[in-house]
Amino acid sequence: xxxxxxxxxxxxxxxxxxxxxxxxxxxxxxxxxxxxxxxxxxxxxxxxxxxxxxxxxxxxxxxxxxxxxxxxxxxxxxxxxxxxxxxxxxxxxxxxxxxxxxxxxxxxxxxxxxxxxxxxxxxxxxxxxxxxxxxxxxxxxxxxxxxxxxxxxxxxxxxxxxxxxxxxxxxxxxxxxxxxxxxxxxxxxxxxxxxxxxxxxxxxxxxxxxxxxxxxxxxxxxxxxxxxxxxxxxxxxxxxxxxxxxxxxxxxxxxxxxxxxxxxxxxxxxxxxxxxxxxxxxxxxxxxxxxxxxxxxxxxxxxxxxxxxxxxxxxxxxxxxxxxxxxxxxxxxxxxxxxxxxxxxxxxxxxxxxxxxxxxxxxxxxxxxxxxxxxxxxxxxxxxxxxxxxxxxxxxxxxx
Length: 400
Ligand code: KIV
Ligand code: ZN
Known about the structure:
Helix content: 40-55%
Number of helices: 15
Oligomer: single chain
Mean pLDDT: 93
Structural class: alpha/beta
Largest sheet: 8 strands, parallel, barrel
Radius of gyration: 26 Å
Strand content: 5-15%
Shape: elongated
Strand order of the largest sheet: 2-3-4-5-6-7-8-9
Bound molecules: 3-methyl-2-oxobutanoic acid, zinc ion
Distance between the termini: 47 Å
């Protein structure tokens, strides 16, 4: 099976979004964890952005030895010089150069022509290649670039020494079919360079970042750029954990592999939230608090009989400590019985029926039934009984 390289840009694209900036120590801590997670490339920063970013990039480059460390630069001399300084201590450095290629960006943002942009790309890739063995070129706004011109720009980068070509959907505009077609077209125009790796970098403005990344894999991309918890500019980037799990669960559909250690996904997600103080939405796929929580009675009943009925991946596979059966008004008797048993209370059918009736009344008022509520309910039920309870169970005070 072919391997898809995972390029993590949490420390660069992720870090440059509001609320997510990190200092040198925080970046280092996260970089160590991301290396453990098994990514292939860590983009450590954009060194021209600030002296702090340059210093943090150097610190990551000095410490991370198993992964390639990338530093970003616009196709400009000062940027490239700063990125090369950032990469000096790296065991496996990668210079990541970019320049916008869409007419919109060329005309309004860069105020340059198509020809001048190609000259600039060729010149800076050639210069970069003299100082760094591995050069990646990104055609910013590739998904809104006219395909013939995109191919010319990409060819100029490859002929100047770039071996990885990234085709970003910078503004999250593409659809899966459109994005896949760009990869097929560019691959066809790179016929004489079969070893060039094509990379996808998707933003989630239309909620399509993961779908577009998967479509790119279908169309031959063998590097995906993504971030922990999907953080990144505006709506964020492709979420690394969603991509990892999609490739694992749907290997039938995407016969590729990665070097990721899936059980490190949840701890890495938690570390990012702790460092930045920004929590993950509860309904976030894979790492959200509700990703493995079940409240509906029918679902709880299925999960208790066989978790695969309502879970396509087991929580422990991605490092989630345990699934949660949430007791609320949608829950069924089986879930109450099972939770009570876990708390040490074996119950009779009549006790469970009464317990369930009282719990539903309370759930209507309080929304969720916690362990203490459940214990107080079972005690209430038992106190109201004339015959001796089946099993008196531990006292409420011993149960947390
Ligand atoms: O979204 C984008 O185009 C980028 C590039 C700099 C790779 O982040
Ligand atoms: Zn981006």
